[in-house]
């Protein structure tokens, strides 16, 4: 499924929990794990002092990646490591591009503490900009399980949702997991008159068509079982989270938009909310830049 997995790490407890999950995936699929530490030389204190400070950062990075490689070898997982200087998020993306990485795995929080939201973090920037799927996990790891037995793919029929569906189907097939397809109809714009009832019926029919197409695609790929669910409510995010809780979902696969145009900003989207709040791993699949441009 994934032959080259990139795991950027700062040595935090959250990163350690995420690495356990990385090793589970790599051991099951004979993947090579790339352990990367980025010495953040862009911070003011480092820029002013350089020299010895950079040396200290790199030595600490060597220790962090060395410990991770040792853990990988204990699991008989092939691992390589590197310490680089630079801006963390762009260095991670450059590494992924240059090493033909298939998957990036990151915790939602690092050294800055659990009390901070994902907003503005390295993880958020990688999720927004990486060309490959990014798997994010909460640092506590309480709801992280492997192998995946139930995979959820929310879909609205958009191009980026279809890309997420393709990846979700591949994972369900590789893991022999059940695939859950979910379409959520938002009711915030609907009133209480007859026209609203007609509009809701139309939206439900559209959602059903989308789900039937997605289920057919999954069935053709050999995935079984596949379930289809339509939910209606004021919040897509809340509906997805409720489904996760109610069906013991192990992984949710969602799409993000491409880099071009106003929709390049993930801020405020359902995907960003899920990455921030989901108790289970979230795999984000970004719409390719070329396809986003073709639609404009």
Helix and strand run: EHEHHEHEHEEHEHEHEHEH
Name of the level-1 CATH class of the largest domain: Alpha Beta
Number of helices: 10
Radius of gyration: 20 Å
Q: Total domains, how many?
A: 2
Uncertain regions: pLDDT < 50 for 5+ in a row?
Answer: 111-119, 259-268
Number of E strands: 10
CATH superfamily of the largest domain: HUPs
Q: Major sheet: size, sense and barrel closure? A: 10 strands, mixed
| Euclidean distance between termini CA atoms | 32 Å
Strand-residue fraction?
15-25%
SS class: alpha/beta
Protein name: Universal stress protein
Pfam families: Usp
Family: Belongs to the universal stress protein A family.
InterPro entries: Rossmann-like_a/b/a_fold, Universal_stress_UspA, UspA
Overall description:
It comes from Natrinema salsiterrestre. Residues 1-135, 148-286 form the UspA domain. InterPro entries: Rossmann-like_a/b/a_fold (IPR014729), Universal_stress_UspA (IPR006015), UspA (IPR006016). Pfam families: Usp. The protein folds into two domains: 4-137, HUPs (Rossmann fold, 3-Layer(aba) Sandwich); 150-294, Rossmann fold, CATH 3.40.50.620. It has a ten-stranded mixed beta sheet, with helices on both faces. The chain contains ten helices and ten strands. Helix 4 packs parallel to helix 5 (122-129). Strand 7, helix 7 and strand 8 (226-233) form a beta-alpha-beta unit. The chain is an alpha/beta fold and 296 residues long. Residues 111-119 and 259-268 have low confidence and may be disordered.
């Amino acid at each position: 499924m994934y032959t080259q997995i990139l795991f950027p790490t700062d040595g935090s407890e959250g990163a350690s929990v995420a690495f356990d999950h990385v090793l589970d995936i790599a051991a099951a699929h004979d993947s090579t794990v790339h352990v990367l530490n980025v010495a953040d030389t862009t911070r003011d204190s480092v820029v002013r002092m350089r020299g010895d400070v950079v040396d200290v950062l790199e030595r600490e990075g060597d220790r962090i990646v060395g410990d991770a490689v040792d853990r990988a070898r204990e699991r008989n997982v092939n691992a390589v490591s590197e310490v680089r200087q630079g801006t963390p998020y762009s260095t991670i993306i450059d590494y992924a591009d240059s090493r033909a990485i298939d998957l990036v795995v990151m915790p939602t929080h690092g050294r800055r503490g659990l009390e901070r939201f994902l907003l503005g973090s390295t993880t958020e920037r990688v999720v927004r900009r990486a060309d490959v799927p990014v798997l994010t996990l909460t640092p506590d790891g309480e709801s992280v399980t492997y192998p995946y037995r139930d995979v959820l793919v929310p879909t609205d029929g958009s191009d980026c949702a279809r890309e997420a569906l393709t990846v979700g189907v591949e994972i369900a097939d590789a893991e022999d997991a059940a695939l859950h397809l979910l379409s959520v109809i938002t009711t915030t714009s609907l009133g209480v008159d007859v026209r609203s009832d007609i509009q809701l019926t139309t939206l439900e029919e559209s959602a059903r068509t989308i789900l039937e197409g997605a289920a057919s695609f999954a069935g053709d790929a050999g995935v079984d079982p596949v379930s289809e669910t339509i939910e209606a409510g004021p919040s897509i995010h809340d509906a997805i989270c409720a489904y996760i809780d109610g069906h013991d979902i192990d992984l949710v696969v969602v799409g993000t938009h491409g880099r071009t145009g106003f929709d390049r900003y993930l801020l405020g989207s359902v995907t960003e909310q899920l990455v921030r709040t989901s108790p289970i791993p979230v795999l984000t699949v970004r719409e390719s830049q070329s396809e986003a441009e073709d639609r404009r």
